[in-house]
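stuck on this chain:
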Amino acid sequence: MAHIEKSMKKSILFSFLLLGSPIIWSQQKINYTSYDLANGLHVILHEEHATPIVAVSVLYHVGSKNENPNRTGFAHFFEHLLFEGSANIDRGEYSELVEKNGGTLNANTSQDRTYYYEVLPSNQLELGIWLESERMLHAKVDIKGIETQRSVVKEEKRQRVDNQPYGSFFTEMFKRVFTAHPYNWAPIGSMEHLDAAQEEDYVNFYKTFYVPSNATLSIAGDIEIEQTKKWIELYFGSIPKGQAINLYRDYVNLNDEDFLSRYSLEKSGFNQKNFLATTDPAANKMITYMSNQPCQIDRPSKDKTPLVGIIKDTIYDNIQLPALFMGFKMPAQTHPDTYALEFLNEVLSSGSSSRINKEIVEKRQLAQFAFSFNYGLEDAGIGIMAAIAPQDVALDTLLLAFDEQIVRIKSELISEEEFQKVRNKFENDIASSNASIAGIAENLADNHVYFGSADRVNTLLSNYLNVTREDIMRVANTYLTQDARVILYYLPKEK
């Protein structure tokens, strides 16, 4: 049992790393300063001197849902590729610069976003700002880096998805729940698509999405606001706005002949030292024109397509024990029902005293490990229930046991004891979740981009405390639709 539970949790953890997990924020008021640069970059600054560290992060509003259906995996691929370096950072030097200065760095990708960050000693704040400006302005997007990262991503998929027990369940579930929306494919994407893509495909993806108007710079920690603003203006303020950023990238990367062919203008008319301040009239005219051309980013609309009927499939995998996975269509993360849905899943599967664990795992011993969670995204959400069964338990029997719990929570109010336990858990989780500067930086950016206001970090707890027992029963009846769901049976491959 311990091995199975560990493997399952590992699989789920990686899925959340690929998909981006919901975050809960602290009750303690978080003060911040926010503003926009002239090029469209949104900036959020939180000053906190408790520890001498800073977190520098950039959230790009691009995830797997923004990909060409024939070029899936690009968003996640860029999460890797953009550590290759830039025009001023040698290949492989990015991580080295951070680590040798006592910092750490990482990134993650979901269906909705790509997020990069560095955590550094506060005396290295300028370094972090410069590194992220380099990533935005002129990262290395060339065939050498592409080939290197193709191998890295392929190996990651082999280890974390293909060869992970039950590792495909997210992919299999999403493509059945989201039939009419780009959530249909997982962020890891298709290796065949990445292989088929040409260098131009990667360059165009970078030019489309890695622009100031599609980004939020969030910095938290031991900073001085005014000095931080000066560094931001120095390194990010000079990044051209609109399509002028791509004019500049072409100016840097194209040879004279190709640049002339594309823009009907000699490169010599531009000034490398100060691109935006060239004295050449023709170059100035081109810069002005391109600056006024917005970086248009088409986004999918909210997914309002309901699930129709029961979709039931069997998947044979390299596993030892059978498993059941159920998927329900849920609202987007901004929907007010999200908070009650979180309560619902806590009652069902949080801890040893939860209903699923007490009834299905411990009392009836129909599962060795079981869980339930709601996963809200920008355009829609998904609710998942799952369990790993012993060899001698039929999955049909396990499904009936889950259905009994669904009927119960739809037909009767949860007890006051259960309700208070979950309330207390949320209060505790929310009060302790902003323990890190990196978490604060990410939470501020997420709330700005997806909820329209970074200040949601300061109101989240009240949203949960406003949930009633009646709300929990209502959302159970609304969304746990037993006649409209996806049911996946995972069975061991025959030897």
Remarks:
- Residues 182 and 377 are 12 Å apart (CA to CA).
- The domain at 310-492 is CATH 3.30.830.10 (Cytochrome Bc1 Complex; Chain A, domain 1).
- Confidence is low (pLDDT under 50) at residues 1-26.
- The longest strand covers residues 53-60.
